[in-house]
Amino acid sequence: MSILTRGPGRTWAGFALAAAVLFGLAPAVLSDFRLSLLAKFLCFAIVAVGIGLAWGRGGMLTLGQGVFFGIGAYVMAMHLKIADAELKGSEVPDFMQIAGIRTLPGYWAPFASPVVTILAIALLPALVAFLLGLGVFKRRVKGAYFAILSQALAAAFAILLIGQQSTGGSNGLNRFRTFFGFSLADPANKRMLFFIAAGVLLAVVAATRQLMNSRYGELLVAVRDQEERVRFLGYDPANVKLVAYVTAAFFAGIAGALFVPIVGIISPADVGIVPSIAFLIGVAIGGRATLLGPVLGAIGVAWAQSAFSETFPSGWIYAQGLLFIVVVGFFPAGVAGLFALRRRRRPTDTTTAAPPAVETEMEFAR
Protein backbone atom coordinates (compact mmCIF):
# COMPACT_ATOMS: atom_id res chain seq x y z
CA MET A 1 0.00 0.00 0.00
CA SER A 2 1.36 3.40 -0.96
CA ILE A 3 1.92 6.06 1.65
CA LEU A 4 -0.63 8.17 -0.17
CA THR A 5 -3.36 5.61 0.53
CA ARG A 6 -2.60 4.79 4.14
CA GLY A 7 -5.19 5.45 6.80
CA PRO A 8 -4.93 8.43 9.14
CA GLY A 9 -3.62 6.25 11.96
CA ARG A 10 -0.64 4.92 10.02
CA THR A 11 0.08 8.36 8.60
CA TRP A 12 0.20 9.97 12.03
CA ALA A 13 2.32 7.09 13.27
CA GLY A 14 4.78 7.73 10.45
CA PHE A 15 5.01 11.43 11.27
CA ALA A 16 5.45 10.60 14.96
CA LEU A 17 8.31 8.25 14.13
CA ALA A 18 9.98 10.86 11.90
CA ALA A 19 9.60 13.47 14.62
CA ALA A 20 11.09 11.11 17.22
CA VAL A 21 14.11 10.47 14.98
CA LEU A 22 14.66 14.13 14.12
CA PHE A 23 13.93 15.71 17.48
CA GLY A 24 15.06 12.93 19.80
CA LEU A 25 17.43 10.37 18.32
CA ALA A 26 19.52 12.57 16.02
CA PRO A 27 20.42 15.23 18.64
CA ALA A 28 21.23 12.48 21.13
CA VAL A 29 23.64 10.46 18.99
CA LEU A 30 25.19 13.02 16.63
CA SER A 31 27.93 15.49 17.43
CA ASP A 32 27.32 19.19 16.90
CA PHE A 33 29.20 19.07 13.59
CA ARG A 34 27.24 16.07 12.28
CA LEU A 35 23.96 17.56 13.48
CA SER A 36 24.72 20.77 11.59
CA LEU A 37 25.56 18.67 8.55
CA LEU A 38 22.23 16.85 8.84
CA ALA A 39 20.46 20.23 9.08
CA LYS A 40 22.06 21.16 5.76
CA PHE A 41 20.77 17.90 4.25
CA LEU A 42 17.27 18.67 5.54
CA CYS A 43 17.36 21.91 3.56
CA PHE A 44 18.06 19.88 0.42
CA ALA A 45 15.20 17.55 1.34
CA ILE A 46 12.77 20.50 1.54
CA VAL A 47 13.72 21.44 -2.03
CA ALA A 48 13.34 17.79 -3.07
CA VAL A 49 9.75 17.61 -1.79
CA GLY A 50 8.78 20.45 -4.12
CA ILE A 51 10.57 18.83 -7.05
CA GLY A 52 8.76 15.58 -6.32
CA LEU A 53 5.45 17.42 -6.55
CA ALA A 54 6.28 19.33 -9.74
CA TRP A 55 8.25 16.60 -11.54
CA GLY A 56 7.00 13.33 -10.07
CA ARG A 57 3.33 14.24 -9.98
CA GLY A 58 3.19 17.01 -12.57
CA GLY A 59 5.73 15.82 -15.14
CA MET A 60 7.64 19.13 -15.14
CA LEU A 61 11.40 18.50 -15.29
CA THR A 62 12.49 21.41 -13.09
CA LEU A 63 16.20 21.98 -13.74
CA GLY A 64 16.22 25.49 -12.31
CA GLN A 65 15.29 25.12 -8.64
CA GLY A 66 18.63 26.66 -7.73
CA VAL A 67 17.17 30.03 -8.75
CA PHE A 68 14.39 29.94 -6.15
CA PHE A 69 16.74 28.41 -3.58
CA GLY A 70 19.16 31.26 -4.28
CA ILE A 71 16.54 34.01 -4.02
CA GLY A 72 15.53 32.86 -0.55
CA ALA A 73 19.15 32.38 0.46
CA TYR A 74 20.39 35.79 -0.72
CA VAL A 75 17.46 37.59 0.87
CA MET A 76 18.28 35.97 4.20
CA ALA A 77 22.01 36.59 3.74
CA MET A 78 21.46 40.30 3.04
CA HIS A 79 19.41 40.68 6.20
CA LEU A 80 22.04 38.89 8.30
CA LYS A 81 24.86 41.03 6.88
CA ILE A 82 22.92 44.24 7.57
CA ALA A 83 22.20 43.10 11.13
CA ASP A 84 25.88 42.29 11.69
CA ALA A 85 26.90 45.72 10.36
CA GLU A 86 24.46 47.45 12.68
CA LEU A 87 25.93 45.62 15.66
CA LYS A 88 29.33 47.04 14.76
CA GLY A 89 27.94 50.53 14.18
CA SER A 90 28.64 50.46 10.44
CA GLU A 91 26.37 51.61 7.64
CA VAL A 92 27.39 48.89 5.20
CA PRO A 93 28.52 45.25 5.59
CA ASP A 94 32.22 44.47 5.90
CA PHE A 95 32.72 43.14 2.37
CA MET A 96 31.26 46.34 0.90
CA GLN A 97 33.76 48.43 2.84
CA ILE A 98 36.58 46.36 1.34
CA ALA A 99 35.11 46.85 -2.14
CA GLY A 100 34.88 50.61 -1.61
CA ILE A 101 31.08 50.76 -1.37
CA ARG A 102 30.20 53.40 1.26
CA THR A 103 26.42 53.54 0.87
CA LEU A 104 24.00 50.65 1.25
CA PRO A 105 22.44 49.86 -2.18
CA GLY A 106 18.78 50.73 -2.45
CA TYR A 107 17.60 47.17 -3.00
CA TRP A 108 19.36 46.10 0.21
CA ALA A 109 17.58 48.64 2.43
CA PRO A 110 14.18 46.86 2.78
CA PHE A 111 15.89 43.74 4.11
CA ALA A 112 17.04 45.56 7.22
CA SER A 113 13.57 44.74 8.55
CA PRO A 114 13.06 41.16 9.82
CA VAL A 115 9.38 41.26 8.84
CA VAL A 116 10.12 42.37 5.27
CA THR A 117 12.83 39.73 5.03
CA ILE A 118 10.51 36.90 6.08
CA LEU A 119 7.80 38.09 3.69
CA ALA A 120 10.31 38.38 0.84
CA ILE A 121 11.62 34.86 1.49
CA ALA A 122 8.08 33.51 1.22
CA LEU A 123 6.81 35.67 -1.64
CA LEU A 124 9.71 36.53 -3.98
CA PRO A 125 10.54 32.97 -5.16
CA ALA A 126 6.83 32.22 -5.57
CA LEU A 127 6.29 35.46 -7.50
CA VAL A 128 9.20 34.77 -9.87
CA ALA A 129 7.91 31.23 -10.43
CA PHE A 130 4.39 32.54 -11.04
CA LEU A 131 5.52 35.05 -13.67
CA LEU A 132 7.81 32.56 -15.38
CA GLY A 133 5.28 29.72 -15.23
CA LEU A 134 2.50 31.94 -16.51
CA GLY A 135 4.52 32.79 -19.61
CA VAL A 136 5.73 29.23 -20.16
CA PHE A 137 2.67 27.10 -19.43
CA LYS A 138 0.20 29.39 -21.15
CA ARG A 139 2.29 29.00 -24.29
CA ARG A 140 2.18 25.21 -23.80
CA VAL A 141 5.93 24.88 -23.44
CA LYS A 142 6.72 21.50 -21.88
CA GLY A 143 9.05 18.52 -21.91
CA ALA A 144 12.65 19.07 -22.91
CA TYR A 145 11.96 22.68 -23.92
CA PHE A 146 10.77 23.53 -20.41
CA ALA A 147 13.76 21.74 -18.87
CA ILE A 148 16.24 23.64 -21.05
CA LEU A 149 14.53 26.95 -20.30
CA SER A 150 14.62 26.40 -16.54
CA GLN A 151 18.27 25.32 -16.71
CA ALA A 152 19.16 28.43 -18.72
CA LEU A 153 17.46 30.54 -16.06
CA ALA A 154 19.68 28.98 -13.37
CA ALA A 155 22.80 29.69 -15.44
CA ALA A 156 21.76 33.29 -16.06
CA PHE A 157 21.01 33.83 -12.38
CA ALA A 158 24.45 32.55 -11.32
CA ILE A 159 26.21 34.71 -13.93
CA LEU A 160 24.25 37.76 -12.79
CA LEU A 161 25.34 37.21 -9.18
CA ILE A 162 28.98 36.77 -10.15
CA GLY A 163 29.00 40.18 -11.80
CA GLN A 164 27.53 42.01 -8.81
CA GLN A 165 29.99 43.39 -6.25
CA SER A 166 27.08 44.39 -4.03
CA THR A 167 26.24 40.70 -3.48
CA GLY A 168 29.83 39.55 -2.98
CA GLY A 169 30.50 38.52 -6.57
CA SER A 170 31.83 34.98 -7.00
CA ASN A 171 32.69 34.82 -3.28
CA GLY A 172 29.10 35.33 -2.24
CA LEU A 173 28.05 36.34 1.27
CA ASN A 174 29.51 34.70 4.36
CA ARG A 175 30.76 35.17 7.93
CA PHE A 176 27.35 35.69 9.51
CA ARG A 177 27.44 36.30 13.25
CA THR A 178 23.81 36.50 14.29
CA PHE A 179 20.44 35.07 13.32
CA PHE A 180 17.56 37.40 14.31
CA GLY A 181 19.45 38.39 17.44
CA PHE A 182 20.83 34.92 18.31
CA SER A 183 24.57 34.31 18.13
CA LEU A 184 25.51 31.72 15.51
CA ALA A 185 28.66 30.89 17.49
CA ASP A 186 26.55 29.39 20.29
CA PRO A 187 26.12 25.58 19.88
CA ALA A 188 22.65 25.82 21.44
CA ASN A 189 21.54 28.17 18.67
CA LYS A 190 22.98 25.86 16.04
CA ARG A 191 20.82 23.08 17.47
CA MET A 192 17.88 25.46 17.35
CA LEU A 193 18.47 25.87 13.61
CA PHE A 194 18.44 22.09 13.20
CA PHE A 195 15.11 21.85 14.99
CA ILE A 196 13.68 24.63 12.82
CA ALA A 197 14.81 22.84 9.65
CA ALA A 198 13.37 19.54 10.90
CA GLY A 199 10.04 21.16 11.78
CA VAL A 200 9.81 22.90 8.41
CA LEU A 201 10.56 19.64 6.59
CA LEU A 202 7.78 17.80 8.45
CA ALA A 203 5.36 20.65 7.71
CA VAL A 204 6.29 20.67 4.03
CA VAL A 205 5.84 16.89 3.74
CA ALA A 206 2.45 17.11 5.49
CA ALA A 207 1.29 19.92 3.18
CA THR A 208 2.48 18.06 0.09
CA ARG A 209 0.70 14.88 1.18
CA GLN A 210 -2.49 16.88 1.58
CA LEU A 211 -2.09 18.27 -1.94
CA MET A 212 -1.41 14.84 -3.40
CA ASN A 213 -4.48 13.33 -1.72
CA SER A 214 -6.75 16.18 -2.74
CA ARG A 215 -8.80 16.60 -5.89
CA TYR A 216 -6.06 18.90 -7.14
CA GLY A 217 -3.50 16.09 -6.78
CA GLU A 218 -5.61 13.80 -8.97
CA LEU A 219 -6.00 16.57 -11.53
CA LEU A 220 -2.22 17.19 -11.54
CA VAL A 221 -1.55 13.53 -12.36
CA ALA A 222 -4.23 13.65 -15.05
CA VAL A 223 -2.56 16.67 -16.65
CA ARG A 224 0.78 14.86 -16.57
CA ASP A 225 -0.62 11.75 -18.26
CA GLN A 226 -3.33 13.13 -20.60
CA GLU A 227 -3.09 16.88 -20.87
CA GLU A 228 -5.32 17.20 -23.92
CA ARG A 229 -8.10 15.16 -22.32
CA VAL A 230 -8.00 17.39 -19.25
CA ARG A 231 -8.29 20.44 -21.49
CA PHE A 232 -11.22 18.80 -23.29
CA LEU A 233 -12.97 18.35 -19.91
CA GLY A 234 -12.88 22.10 -19.34
CA TYR A 235 -9.80 22.53 -17.14
CA ASP A 236 -6.83 24.71 -18.03
CA PRO A 237 -3.71 22.52 -17.63
CA ALA A 238 -1.54 25.65 -17.43
CA ASN A 239 -3.20 26.69 -14.17
CA VAL A 240 -2.84 23.21 -12.71
CA LYS A 241 0.87 23.11 -13.53
CA LEU A 242 1.36 26.64 -12.27
CA VAL A 243 0.17 25.78 -8.77
CA ALA A 244 2.66 22.90 -8.47
CA TYR A 245 5.50 24.97 -9.92
CA VAL A 246 4.87 27.91 -7.58
CA THR A 247 4.57 25.57 -4.59
CA ALA A 248 7.92 23.96 -5.44
CA ALA A 249 9.51 27.42 -5.72
CA PHE A 250 8.02 28.43 -2.36
CA PHE A 251 9.56 25.35 -0.71
CA ALA A 252 12.93 26.02 -2.36
CA GLY A 253 12.97 29.64 -1.17
CA ILE A 254 12.35 28.59 2.43
CA ALA A 255 15.08 25.95 2.17
CA GLY A 256 17.54 28.52 0.84
CA ALA A 257 16.77 30.90 3.70
CA LEU A 258 17.44 28.14 6.26
CA PHE A 259 20.59 27.04 4.42
CA VAL A 260 22.33 30.39 4.98
CA PRO A 261 22.57 30.47 8.80
CA ILE A 262 23.12 26.70 8.97
CA VAL A 263 26.03 26.56 6.51
CA GLY A 264 27.29 30.11 6.95
CA ILE A 265 27.76 30.98 3.28
CA ILE A 266 25.86 31.43 0.04
CA SER A 267 27.54 31.98 -3.32
CA PRO A 268 26.73 31.65 -7.04
CA ALA A 269 28.20 28.14 -6.89
CA ASP A 270 25.27 27.12 -4.67
CA VAL A 271 22.51 28.32 -7.00
CA GLY A 272 23.60 27.55 -10.56
CA ILE A 273 23.20 24.60 -12.89
CA VAL A 274 25.24 22.08 -10.90
CA PRO A 275 23.29 22.38 -7.62
CA SER A 276 20.00 22.42 -9.55
CA ILE A 277 20.91 19.11 -11.16
CA ALA A 278 22.11 17.77 -7.81
CA PHE A 279 18.66 18.45 -6.35
CA LEU A 280 17.14 16.50 -9.23
CA ILE A 281 19.50 13.53 -8.82
CA GLY A 282 18.44 13.00 -5.21
CA VAL A 283 14.78 13.04 -6.20
CA ALA A 284 15.33 10.60 -9.08
CA ILE A 285 17.28 8.16 -6.92
CA GLY A 286 14.81 8.28 -4.06
CA GLY A 287 11.73 7.96 -6.23
CA ARG A 288 10.09 11.02 -7.75
CA ALA A 289 6.53 9.68 -7.86
CA THR A 290 6.38 8.98 -4.11
CA LEU A 291 6.04 11.26 -1.12
CA LEU A 292 9.01 10.18 0.97
CA GLY A 293 11.26 9.07 -1.90
CA PRO A 294 12.53 12.60 -2.68
CA VAL A 295 13.23 13.26 1.02
CA LEU A 296 15.18 10.06 1.58
CA GLY A 297 16.94 10.37 -1.78
CA ALA A 298 18.07 13.95 -1.15
CA ILE A 299 19.35 13.16 2.34
CA GLY A 300 20.96 9.90 1.21
CA VAL A 301 22.77 11.42 -1.77
CA ALA A 302 23.95 14.41 0.27
CA TRP A 303 25.19 12.13 3.04
CA ALA A 304 26.96 9.87 0.53
CA GLN A 305 28.60 12.89 -1.08
CA SER A 306 29.88 14.06 2.29
CA ALA A 307 31.07 10.61 3.37
CA PHE A 308 32.73 9.62 0.10
CA SER A 309 34.27 13.05 -0.44
CA GLU A 310 36.11 12.70 2.86
CA THR A 311 37.73 9.48 1.61
CA PHE A 312 37.78 9.98 -2.17
CA PRO A 313 37.70 13.74 -2.81
CA SER A 314 37.99 13.46 -6.59
CA GLY A 315 35.94 10.31 -7.13
CA TRP A 316 32.52 11.21 -5.78
CA ILE A 317 31.32 13.10 -8.85
CA TYR A 318 31.90 10.00 -11.01
CA ALA A 319 30.10 7.77 -8.52
CA GLN A 320 27.19 10.20 -8.42
CA GLY A 321 26.91 10.25 -12.21
CA LEU A 322 27.09 6.45 -12.42
CA LEU A 323 24.43 6.06 -9.73
CA PHE A 324 22.14 8.48 -11.56
CA ILE A 325 22.57 6.61 -14.85
CA VAL A 326 21.90 3.24 -13.23
CA VAL A 327 18.75 4.46 -11.48
CA VAL A 328 17.32 6.25 -14.51
CA GLY A 329 18.21 3.40 -16.87
CA PHE A 330 17.16 0.41 -14.78
CA PHE A 331 15.07 1.67 -11.83
CA PRO A 332 13.11 4.65 -13.18
CA ALA A 333 10.79 4.65 -10.16
CA GLY A 334 13.75 5.07 -7.80
CA VAL A 335 14.53 3.19 -4.62
CA ALA A 336 11.09 3.88 -3.14
CA GLY A 337 9.53 2.47 -6.31
CA LEU A 338 11.35 -0.83 -5.80
CA PHE A 339 9.80 -1.31 -2.37
CA ALA A 340 6.37 -0.36 -3.69
CA LEU A 341 6.76 -2.86 -6.53
CA ARG A 342 7.66 -5.64 -4.10
CA ARG A 343 4.52 -4.91 -2.08
CA ARG A 344 2.45 -5.01 -5.23
CA ARG A 345 3.79 -8.45 -6.20
CA ARG A 346 2.90 -10.05 -2.88
CA PRO A 347 0.10 -12.65 -3.09
CA THR A 348 -3.24 -11.17 -2.09
CA ASP A 349 -6.65 -12.57 -1.32
CA THR A 350 -8.72 -12.69 -4.50
CA THR A 351 -11.78 -11.60 -2.57
CA THR A 352 -10.21 -8.28 -1.66
CA ALA A 353 -9.86 -5.31 -3.92
CA ALA A 354 -6.59 -5.03 -5.75
CA PRO A 355 -4.24 -2.30 -4.52
CA PRO A 356 -3.79 0.76 -6.69
CA ALA A 357 -1.20 0.45 -9.42
CA VAL A 358 2.25 1.70 -8.60
CA GLU A 359 3.39 4.60 -10.76
CA THR A 360 6.65 3.39 -12.21
CA GLU A 361 7.16 6.47 -14.37
CA MET A 362 9.13 4.72 -17.11
CA GLU A 363 9.79 7.94 -18.97
CA PHE A 364 12.59 10.16 -17.69
CA ALA A 365 10.68 13.31 -18.58
CA ARG A 366 7.39 13.83 -20.29
Ordered list of secondary-structure elements with their pairings:
Layout: H1 8-29, H2 32-57, H3 65-87, H4 94-99, H5 114-137, H6 144-162, E1 173-174, E2 178-179, E3 182-183, H7 187-213, H8 215-225, H9 227-232, H10 237-263, E4 265-266, H11 273-286, H12 293-311, H13 316-330, H14 334-345
Antiparallel strand pairs: 1-4, 2-3
Helix pairs in contact: 1-7, 2-7, 2-10, 2-11, 2-12, 3-5, 3-10, 5-10, 7-8, 7-10, 8-10, 11-12, 11-14
Organism: Rhodococcus kronopolitis
Pfam family, one: BPD_transp_2
Membrane topology: Multi-pass membrane protein
Short description:
The chain is mainly α and 366 residues long. The protein is 69% helix and 2% strand. It has helices at residues 8-29, 32-57, 65-87, 94-99, 114-137, 144-162, 187-213, 215-225, 227-232, 237-263, 273-286, 293-311, 316-330, 334-345; strands spanning 173-174, 178-179, 182-183, 265-266.
Question: What would your notes on this structure say?
Answer:
InterPro entries: ABC_transp_permease, ABC_transptr_urea_perm_UrtC, LivM-like. It holds the Pfam family BPD_transp_2. Keywords: Cell membrane, Membrane, Transmembrane, Transmembrane helix. It is a multi-pass membrane protein. The protein is an all-alpha fold and 366 residues long. The chain has a domain of 240 residues. The strands form 2 sheets. A two-stranded antiparallel sheet has the order 1-4. Strands 2-3 form a two-stranded antiparallel ribbon. The protein is globular and about 60 Å long. The N terminus and C terminus are likely disordered.
